[in-house]
Every structure is written in structure tokens, then in C-alpha cells.
Design a protein that fits this description.
With 276 residues, this protein is of the alpha/beta class. 38% of the residues lie in helices and 21% in strands. The chain is built from ten helices and eleven strands. Strands 2-1-3-10-4-11 form a six-stranded mixed beta sheet. The protein has a five-stranded mixed beta sheet with strand order 7-6-8-5-9. It starts with a helix and ends with a strand.
Length: 276
């Protein structure tokens, strides 16, 4: 009897082992329940959003990008900063741009005339002011008329051919009767940030920049805030470019720039908000 029981136990254990091998073969990746689970949905692909913006927006837009991406994890904002005229030409030449923010109406007017922006996407986003700056450790120039002094050898302005800040500077100096008088002193910059650098370094004894640029450094000081009636209104229009591969994301980013959190950053930087 005992021998028979041992045989029965051996047979039973053999069956258990065999059954285990069969189950493992049928479900190599785990238990039947685990194998039948639905696979995780694939992650949403990331969107690279290219925003071409006037150089004077550099600091504030770099602060705003991570705020936008906190609630838009699938979008990566990539900035292209330069003079508005140069950015306009890039769009005209087919560069991949989703959103364009200029420092004057003219570049957007020309793109709109060529049917290169999404209809209805354009609006004025911000306003700014022009100021006369000198190096922080310099004295002697206190207003525009002081630019005629012999001690002032170099005056930095944006190139009026492509830089809106340079066009405003020319309007200011013409209305003050100084444009031709100071002709030999001008140092033309490729964008308004380069004007700021010339004055910061002392390579120019004065310069005309936006208020927001002057607020980014302690190496220059403002000696005169220019009256608004001496130049065209300084507005920053924004629009979605028609060739954008991500028009919905571009529109979403444009709208985000009018959100309270973004407007707060613009205001801290010295810009004025244009109500929608």
C-alpha cells in the first residue's frame, strides 16, 4: 500500500510539472491576466514651435517660454530673435516660422499684403517707449540737444533700413532738427540690442533704444524719455504665419501671450499691454 501511494504521488507531481510547462509556453510574458492587458497608449509627439520675434523681446519671451510649456508639455518653443526687417525677409524667403512678432506695423503690413499670414490672426500685442541712453559712468549728455557736443563722437542707432528702432530714432532726430547735423556721428546697428551693447561698452557715447532694453542692464542710464509725438506709435503686432505646420499650436501660443501670467511678465519688463 505504501509503495502504491508513493507511485501515485510521483505521478501527481509529474502532472503538475507538465501542466506548468504548458502554461509557461502559452503565456511566456507572465500570467494570463497580464498578457491580456491593453498596451499603454503611445505618447503624443512633441511639437517644435518656431517664434520669430523682434530683438527687443529677447529677455521677456525667454522668461515666458517655460511658463507656456508647463501647461503645454508637448510643445517646445524655439525663438529666432533679430531685427523685424530681417525676420520679415526670412518669412518671405520661406523660412519655417509659426509665429511672428514685429516691433512695428510695417513688416506685418508687407507680409499681409503678400498673403503670408493667417487671416484674422493679426493683432497688436504690446506698446513701448523710446529713450536716450548713455553709459552709466558718463555725464554731460542730458537730452537730445546734448548730442551736438564735440565730446559726443559716436551715437548708436538701429539701421533705419531694417530696424524699427532705427526708423523711430530717425523720426525723432528729424523732428528735433538734428538728423543731418549728427550724420557723421551715427553708428548703425543690426538690431536694437546691438545699439544697447555699443553704449554699454562705451563704444558709443549715446544711443536711442526702447525703454524695455534700457531696463535690462545697469551699465547704461536713461537721460531722456522721448515724447510720443516725436515718432510713430511703437506697437508690436503678432500673427500666425500661413505656412506654419502647426497652426493650432501657433494660435494657442499667440493667445497665451495675452494671458494674465504672460501680461504680468511683459508689464514687469516695461511694456504696455494692448487690450484685445
Amino acid at each position: 500500500m505504501r509503495l502504491t501511494s508513493k507511485k501515485q504521488i510521483s505521478v501527481f507531481l509529474g502532472l503538475v510539472v507538465a501542466l506548468g510547462i504548458v502554461v509557461t509556453a502559452c503565456f511566456p510574458n507572465g500570467s494570463p491576466n497580464t498578457a491580456s492587458k491593453s498596451p499603454s497608449p503611445p505618447s503624443q509627439p512633441s511639437i517644435d514651435l518656431t517664434v520669430s520675434a523682434a530683438a527687443s523681446l529677447t529677455n521677456v519671451l525667454q522668461e515666458i517660454a517655460p511658463l507656456y510649456q508647463e501647461s503645454n508639455a508637448t510643445a517646445t518653443v524655439r525663438y529666432n530673435f533679430a531685427s523685424s526687417g530681417a525676420l520679415q525677409r526670412q518669412v518671405e524667403q520661406g523660412s519655417p516660422v509659426d509665429v511672428f512678432i514685429a516691433a512695428a506695423a510695417k513688416p506685418l503690413n508687407q507680409l499681409e499684403a503678400k498673403n503670408l499670414i493667417v487671416p484674422g490672426s493679426r493683432r497688436n500685442l504690446l506698446k513701448n517707449r523710446m529713450v536716450l541712453i548713455v553709459p552709466a559712468n558718463q555725464s554731460g549728455v542730458s537730452n537730445l540737444q546734448g548730442l551736438t557736443q564735440d565730446e559726443v563722437k559716436r551715437i548708436a542707432i538701429g539701421d533705419p533700413a531694417s530696424v524699427p528702432a532705427g526708423q523711430y530714432a530717425q523720426q525723432i532726430l528729424e523732428k528735433q532738427g538734428l538728423w543731418k547735423t549728427l550724420q557723421a556721428k551715427y553708428v548703425l546697428a543690426n538690431n536694437v540690442r546691438q545699439v544697447l551693447q555699443f553704449v554699454e561698452s562705451g563704444n558709443a557715447q549715446a544711443g536711442l533704444v526702447y525703454l524695455t532694453d534700457a531696463k535690462t542692464t545697469n551699465q547704461v542710464k536713461i537721460v531722456e524719455t522721448i515724447a510720443d509725438n516725436l515718432h510713430d506709435p511703437i506697437v508690436y503686432p503678432i500673427a500666425v504665419i500661413k505656412t506654419s505646420k502647426h497652426p493650432e499650436a501657433a494660435t494657442d501660443f499667440s493667445n497665451f501671450l495675452s494671458s494674465p501670467i504672460a501680461q504680468n511678465r511683459f508689464t514687469q519688463a516695461g511694456f504696455e499691454i494692448v487690450p484685445r
